[in-house]
Amino acid sequence: MLMRTDPFREFDRLTQQLLNTPGTWSRPSAMPMDAYREGEEYVIALDLPGVSPDAIDVDVERNMLTVKAERRPAVKADDVQMELSERPLGVFSRQVVLADTLDTEHIEADYDAGVLTLRIPIAQRAKPRKVAIGGGSAHKEIGG
């Protein structure tokens, strides 16, 4: 149901993780993702802990699903001195090419406990169906 496209994007993602560089709008970091089929829908779950729901953007254009989010630094008073900062900040993005068998017109999005869950129904045209077999067909006799 998903199609991977750019192997170099995965290489960039790994490099960013190793170097621990924050994502920017021009070079966003990737976000961890699970994707699976559950009954009659396809589910994509993306980890976005600490991201405000209003900082998440989900778009679908044709069969390309794009999720972008931004984790901003917490507002700190002037007298705060940061001792340790390990949580990644910046822009995160993930693009997924969806199969034609998914109904992108009816995607549902839910954000709970730092996980964005997208539910995409399987399109009616992709579901198995019985094909009726017609009774006898006219055929010509050969010779005669």
Notes on the protein architecture:
The mean pLDDT is 80. The protein is mainly beta. It has one helix spanning 7-19; strands spanning 2-3, 33-38, 41-47, 56-61, 64-71, 90-98, 108-112, 115-121. The longest helix has 13 residues, at 7-19. The protein has a 4-stranded antiparallel β-sheet with strand order 1-6-5-4, with no helix packed on it. The chain has a 4-stranded antiparallel β-sheet with strand order 2-3-8-7, with no helix packed on it. Belongs to the small heat shock protein (HSP20) family. Residues 24-136 form the SHSP domain. Pfam families: HSP20. This is SHSP domain-containing protein. It comes from Streptomyces humidus.
Question: Which features does this protein show?
Answer:
1 helix; 4-stranded antiparallel sheet; A-crystallin/Hsp20_dom; HSP20-like_chaperone; mainly beta; SHSP domain-containing protein; Small_HSP; 8 strands; 9% helix; 144 residues
What integer is the average pLDDT? 80
Number of helices: 1
Distance between the termini: 55 Å
Strand order in the largest sheet: 1-6-5-4
Summarize this structure briefly.
The protein is mainly β.
SSE arrangement:
Elements lengths: L1 E2 L3 H13 L13 E6 L2 E7 L8 E6 L2 E8 L18 E9 L9 E5 L2 E7 L23
